[in-house]
């Protein structure tokens, strides 16, 4: 008569630790720590190199760093906000068409086309904006100045070349459109089907179903996509540098030839010939852009976390 020895029972709540699990957990933790180290290294480099510009005297830097950076901050935020205002509603509509209106084959092809827009190099967008969109915008700028000139945004006089902040904003809107669309599309496709079917069963039209069941579920995704697009617009360099006619003025006039530069474009244009304190000033402006981008992402994270309670199943 043989007896079998019972294997010791594993305590409840303590899964067996496999070698692969430990390796994966360590790799994931190391990757997270590496990201923090790289971010801290970039911040430390910017702070160290920008310190001479921050502490420079009036004789070395007339007006101080704030006078130099203020128009750049204004131009950066203005162009990014224009792009976000134009691109976000359009991206949401495209995402809704792909996810809830278009036939499957058309939706799949359209998704590929929209995603391919993100692969186009920024210099190509810059060439398109400078040589095609800018000349075409002259007539629109003239019309805006004639009929809507009482609005400060279109006060004029309109630029004869079309190299204006309005054109920059439109080009940036096209550049961030695929980012926002991709995020919104995936979120809309994950909307609970039971909620959609329940709304339709109660007599709601397709738009009412989208407004009541899809958009509330995807609100956090829309915000996340918009913030990702905003980060791309804030840091865009070559397209802005190729299109914008810079005067250094702080103005909200979008159609005139006097336009503030952006931080990234100014660094790209000035850095190759910079030397001495000028290099530190440019790096200091890069530090400001770094802080702006960091604050934008923190704000997006805060907004998304506030709406985290709505999971679509409650």
From TrEMBL:
It is a multi-pass membrane protein. GO terms for molecular function: phosphate transmembrane transporter activity. The chain crosses the membrane at residues 31-53, 65-98, 110-128, 134-154, 166-189, 209-230, 237-257, 277-300. One of its GO terms (cellular component) is plasma membrane. SUPFAM superfamilies: MetI-like. Keywords: Cell membrane, Membrane, Phosphate transport, Transmembrane, Transmembrane helix, Transport. It is found in: Cell membrane. Its main location: membrane. Part of the binding-protein-dependent transport system for phosphate; probably responsible for the translocation of the substrate across the membrane. NCBIfam families: phosphate_pstC. This is Phosphate transport system permease protein. The lineage of its organism: Bacteria, Bacillati, Actinomycetota, Actinomycetes, Pseudonocardiales.
